[in-house]
Amino acid sequence: MAATTLAKGITSGLRASMERDPKVVLLGEDIGKLGGVFRVTEGLQKDFGEDRVIDTPLAEAGILGTAIGMALRGYRPVVEIQFDGFVYPAFDHIVSQVAKLRARSLGYVTMPIVIRIPFGGGIGAVEHHSESNEAYFAHTAGLRVVVCSNAHDAHWMIQQAIETDDPVVFYEPKRRYWDKGEVGDGPDGPLGTARVLREGTDVTLLAYGPMVKTCLQAAQAAEEEGRSLEVVDLRSLSPLDDEAILESVQKTGRAVVVHEASTFLGMGAEISALVTERAFYHLEAPVLRVGGYNVPYPPSRLEEEFLPDLDRVLDGVDRSLAY
Amino acid sequence: MSDNDVAPLETAFGVDHHVSRAEAPERPAQDGGPDMVQLLNPEGERVAHPEHDAVVDGLSDEELRGFYRDLVLIRRFDTEATALQRQGELGLWASLLGQEAAQVGSGRALRPQDYAFPTYREHGVAWCRGVDPVNLLGMFRGVNHGGWDPNEKNFHLYTIIIGAQTLHATGYAMGVQRDGNVGTGDEERDTAVIAYFGDGATSQGDVSEALVFAGVNNSPVVFFCQNNQWAISEPNEKQTRAPLWHRARGFGFPGIRVDGNDVLAVYAVTKAALDAARSGQGPTFIEAFTYRMGAHTTSDDPSKYRVSAEVEVWKHRDPIERFRRWLTTTGRADPDFFDAVDGESDELGASVRQRCLSMPDPGGTEMFDHVFAERHPVMERERAEFETYHASFEAAR
User: Fold this and answer.
1) Rounded distance, CA B179 to CA B175, Å?
2) In CATH, what number does A195-321 get?
3) Is ipTM over 0.90?
4) Is B167 on the interface with A (CB under 8 A)?
5) Does B145 contact A104 at a Cβ distance shorter than 8 Å?
6) Which of A93, B105, B177, B233 is the most buried (most CB within 10 A)?
7) Tell me: the pLDDT tens digits for B136-195?
8) Are the Cβ atoms of A92 and B161 closer than 8 angstroms?
9) pTM of the predicted protein model
């Protein structure tokens, strides 16, 4: 398949799922004629009709609440939340209903809902358009949380998410939407698995979503300084691919977790605990975190200072190697 | 009219010409007002209503006696559950006392293919759907969070988050539309959905959003609001300034207030709304005007916030008494029938008690069983840890 953007990888994945299963329906704001504010659903309403690509009223709780009802009726709703910071009105339905209905019904009910959230900063947006709120959902039992970082995964992981009978929060790195990449013939392992994107021996960089590219660039720069960094794309935040994480850290003895989200109680905290509990004697240094500061996402003129970049990642590597 | 005059405002409780924008209405007489559909008055006398007479007149004596049996049995079930809570066998109980007619009238208007989305107080609707009442006790006893198969009787799990189920009902109805099960004229195929909620829930954003979604999609859903006058300790006037049934108009579909203590009126009004939904005419908002005779739940103490005189007024409007009187005076039921129902209700109470007490506690590992549909490494690891930990006590013996 020719190179395509990450956004169009999702589009083609959605299209494939919709062609395969007539129960797959899309719900969201402006996803019909407009094709979504990022054009991810472009052309789908034209081809699948208004009954399957539903332009909803402007109400996120309503979108999730009705998606739950459609799932109860046997549909597989794929919900688009327009921007990360707009998911909070739907938070109650996600954590109190979507995540719990299966357990509450002792397994009689399944909630095959996919909640797509464009997330993260770096696009110079106004407030509420640049957030990384994945830890809220990763903390919630009953949800699966995955993140794609490239066009190939975007195309295949969205299909895997739709096919899963469990609810999936599907994060899309909005500043990488326009990055091009090859889409291969099939998915790289099942949903829930991580992938080593670059092998190395000195330090493991653990990242997901937009920070994967940053880490790959950092690894390239480090190589020029004679350091060998391994880059693991976590791809799944809940569940974490424990074995892949531990295998890499056991090899390098050092780990730096990189994400845009604030570090306090972020994914890095959980990964740090995991590695410390289960690979303690392999560690040459404490697990370090490079992430957003613990402040509200700043105005866009400051976001370059807030977001981890190549230099901050390499600074984290230096600190790890200093032990 | 000078610029300073304020137009008369219709409040939730009737037109009050003394109300200005500066004054909140005082605690009103809760008589439902002239727009309320009533077919049987509190004295048990039939009140003519041209729009709904035919439906009620078409009910057989056997069906009508069936309504009575439902009313008595669910009250008996409810009384037994309250007693079980008082004796420590349930952690909590939300009584439906006083709301039996609203639930039986609407519940009996449903067809098998219709789908109901309850709050946590719809024991009477569950009964009408054929849900085993003991299933309703599980969550209050703490052995599960519901645990029945909603698709078995088309009765969704109880929903505790106030108003959330109105959106689930609307989404379900949107699915019904996509299945092509609206307006075909096939009585066994055309499907309606009913969402139950209370007066307090109408203040929730979810309910307003459900009304928006149902309205713009013309979905086959009936919004059935049991206005029992109290949201725990807060009376109606803390929730709304306008009558609740008026809201529907703003969302573009009909609203109607019905005497929620009149099983005949509730049946007729709900049936008409469900028929309209199934035939493709979209949603209806029904405000069933009723009263919560008991506490909000067994943890509540209504003596802190409401006067007994108000409760006395509503006792006079009891849904079962008026219906019994009408069945008697019209010769539709005799003392033998009433005795038989009483006997049956005692049997129900005893069997519910016995089956509640014998409800098994869940095993510890069951909490891991149904969190995910597909394999999940955290569930597997934590289940193993749980088993190892508990086995360590066995090994230490």
Assistant:
1) 6
2) 3.40.50.920
3) yes
4) yes
5) yes
6) B105
7) 999 999 999 998 999 999 999 999 999 999 999 999 999 999 999 999 999 999 999 999
8) yes
9) 0.95
